[in-house]
Every structure is written in structure tokens, then in C-alpha cells.
Write a structure and sequence with these properties.
- There is one protein chain.
- With about 60 residues, this protein is mainly α.
- It has one domain.
- Helix content is about 50%, strand content about 0%.
- It is flat and about 35 Å long.
- The chain starts with 6 loop residues before the first helix and ends in a 10-residue tail after the last helix.
Amino acid sequence: ETSRGLLLHRTATALAERLGAGLAEFPGGHLGALEHPEDFADRLTAVFDRAPARPEAGRG
């Protein structure tokens, strides 16, 4: 969240758009998992919950 508008954020946004994926923002910048562990974990869980299922590797 704190990097919005900076080079790394713009790069991630462009990559997400090119891949047709949504951009997931997390609390606390680069140290979010350390500085805001509960909020970070909640956001990570929400992102994983909405991610499409991936086929098992080696099958198919």
C-alpha cells in the first residue's frame, strides 16, 4: 500500500495487467508480514481463497 505510484508498484501493476491477473495489495509495504502479521495473514488468506484451483503437477 505504501508503494503505490512508485516504480515497483507500477511494474507490478503492468505485469498483472499483461497477465490478465488482479493486483493484490498487502498492508505494511515491504515488511508487512513482520510489522502487521495478522492483517497480512488475513489478506493472504483472502487472496488464496479467491485464486483459481491449479491442476496437480504431473497429471494430465
